[in-house]
Amino acid sequence: MDKETADSVRGMARRVTFKNVKDDGETQTASIEVADGIWRDDVEIMQPYGFASHVPEDGGLALAFAVGGDQGDMVVMPIGNPSKRMGKLNPGEVGFYNEHGDKAIMTAGGALDIKTGATVNIVTDTGVNITCTIVSINANLHVTGNITCAGTITDSDGNNGA
């Protein structure tokens, strides 16, 4: 392979850093540094269907590909930021997280663990159904609507009501 062809192939995929993420159109774009001091602006960031993120700070890492070997037509694969990565997952676990420590992990044992420093909101037009053996609430319970009970209600003193 001649040097010109080898250089073209070598330039098709690069590890890049990014800055100036824009998330205001159909596609998210960023400026990427493809080599020391060489930047490409408004490069599209590919994201998996059904998942969206906006990396809040500069310095993330990604792989960029020159489509058809054209350095003027580049796309960036999903961005990572090693300094913000949620590590320590067990084999088979999947999680998502943000920079503030909020996270949800689908554990290998089948649980969904959610940790947040704020409120968890569930909004639906039809209702929420929970099917399980027991629901434990370790907090005060505030209900703004009616409560219907098909079973027995027992308080901490052992008093029963219907």
Write the layout of secondary structure elements.
Layout: H1 3-10, E1 13-22, E2 28-35, E3 38-45, E4 61-66, E5 74-76, E6 94-97, E7 103-106, E8 112-115, E9 153-154, E10 160-161
Parallel strand pairs: 3-5
Antiparallel strand pairs: 1-2, 1-4, 2-3, 4-5, 6-7, 7-8, 9-10
Features:
162 residues, OB fold (Dihydrolipoamide Acetyltransferase, E2P), mainly beta
Written overview of the protein:
The protein is mostly beta strands. Helices cover 5% and strands 31% of the residues. A 5-stranded mixed β-barrel has the order 1-2-3-5-4. The protein has a 3-stranded antiparallel beta sheet with strand order 6-7-8, with no helix packed on it. A hairpin with a 2-residue loop joins β2 (28-35) and β3 (38-45). The relative contact order is 0.11. The model has no long low-confidence stretch (mean pLDDT 88).
At the third CATH level, what is the topology name of the domain at 3-82? OB fold (Dihydrolipoamide Acetyltransferase, E2P)
What's the helical proportion of residues? Answer: under 10%
Shape-level CATH architecture of the domain at 3-82 = Beta Barrel
Q: How big is the Rg?
A: 25 Å
Question: What's the shape?
Answer: elongated
What is the helix/strand order?
HEEEEEEEEEE
Largest sheet: 5 strands, mixed, barrel
Q: Which regions are unreliable across 5 or more consecutive residues at pLDDT < 50?
A: none
Percent of residues in β-strands: 25-35%
Mean pLDDT, all residues: 88
What is the CATH C level class of the domain at 3-82, in words? Mainly Beta
